[in-house]
Design a protein that fits this description.
Blueprint lengths: L29 E2 L2 E2 L1 E3 L15 E3 L27 H11 L3 H17 L7 H12 L8 E2 L5 E2 L40 H7 L14 H15 L5 H11 L3 H20 L1
Amino acid sequence: MGGRWSWREGALALGAVALLAVFLGGILTHVEAAPSVLPASPAERPVDAFVEVPVRQDAVAAAPVAGDAVAASSAPLAPVASVDPVWLARVSAATGIPPRALRAYASAQLRIVTEQPSCAIGWNTLAAIGGIESDHGRHGGAVLGEDGNPVPAIRGPALDGDGVAAIADTDGGRWDGDTLWDRAVGPMQFIPDTWSRWGADGNGDGVADPNQIDDAALATARYLCGVSAMTDAAAWRAAVFAYNHLEAYVEDVAVVANRYAASAAAG
């Protein structure tokens, strides 16, 4: 999804493309722009292996969304989840997602499995958001380092009300370098005010940093699961809509997530 870019509070997302739904890791979206799946039971796997979850396809109805995310998870920090390196290499090759970014998305899912096992969020949902928001930390020629930080840092435009939401500075420029207006920050494009409520330490270094992809991916997973357990299509759509209040964005995420799931299954 190179070069695709969106900002959470008010920016225009790209149009959706029809794609047959194939799901792994709990993703629940649509076929031909209509939600169409329900989850199946996860397969038994070793705890250090990444779990791929098959689903059956059944018709379900989409539901309107009201309200935003409720509250950040209060779960204590835990060691970074282990992702099976064989799975990582295979799925990275099949999907084109850089291994370092894919590891962050998969690790976030594994963390949520222990923190909020009823949520059922999939790695491919997180990867789709990361791909759309920042090309997996590579937007504008940035390079995602092994430490999980893109260089140069990724910043969205000033949220000054000119075609985007107007959000005055909330962090004193700490994360976005702007003391007048907020800007979306990092691989998952968190605005500082949202980060202050949902920031997470995904890499276990004691710092919750929206620029660092493990932290940002875990915060995204907690945010989505805080909206709704993603156990059916309507709940999945509600959670993604809360992340960016545009139906077109929800459709885009669904298309990309489905493509990643299909590629991983085929690979």
